[in-house]
Amino acid sequence: MSVHLEHKESEPLTIKSLNTENPRWCVGCGDFGILMGLKRFMVDNQFIPHETVNVSGIGCSGRTPNYINTYGVHAIHGRPITVALGLALARSDLNIFIESGDGDALSIGGNHLIHGINKNFNCVFLLFDNELYALTKAQTSPTTRKGHPTYTQPRGTYLDPLNPIALVLGIGASFVASTTDWMPDHLASTMSAAFKHKGFSFVHISQRCPHYDAEAFDYKTTGWFSFLTHENGIPPDKRLADKTEVIVHDPMNLEMAFKYAASPRRHFGLFYCDPNKPCYDEILRWERDKAEKKPRSKLLDHFQI
Question: Exposed end of the chain (fewer CB within 10 Å): N or C?
């Protein structure tokens, strides 16, 4: 668990005051951009550090809580959602962010992702997707593209990758968006929309890993992706909007969200949003508040034989 929190509330929050130690990622890693995007979002909204917590699992993304001046939990592999749910139930006042990788979230943690989405508790879930296990030196992950050579499958991966967007739409996620580490304005806008949503906000982030897979994302061109935008959605990146296709998509339209998710062309923006899905943490708090109050000495009387 990481705790820094030397910021004084009387002083404006700045990028500098959110800094801790220097990040230890490979040169050019997309995690730097995501970390800066998260800090920029916090500064823009003047978050109070001790009212914010970052929870991560294992992988390169797992180091994120160490590099940002808030409360932080570096949890075990695949389990950041369970830790975050406990925090959400105990402290509804906290701003909760979860940082998880494609292996952490979609492999060992896949079952927790299912139930986190189903419970729809209030948090922002950031999926750092570099399409391989990078911390363990370029092994095949659930999202590694078919035919790409890795150290575990040196002749090329055998299977088609999981589609994270289609997967979470199928589970019933109440908020599904996609962005990248190299579009800072779009990343910030996506985080803003995700934070405003009440429930489990799933944000897929295409993240570069130049050390092990420099060809995963052609961030210097725009012909391979489109932006999804709407008055109730996320604006396209202002630097790139005139260089690629921009599609007006109503995020309440689940059928079209599935269509764009299944397309071989990448789409960045808000796929789907359901503001009316019940939140498990709110339901439990409501049940607690209406429950009959008993002294602690009688709490177990119901179980007497």
Answer: C
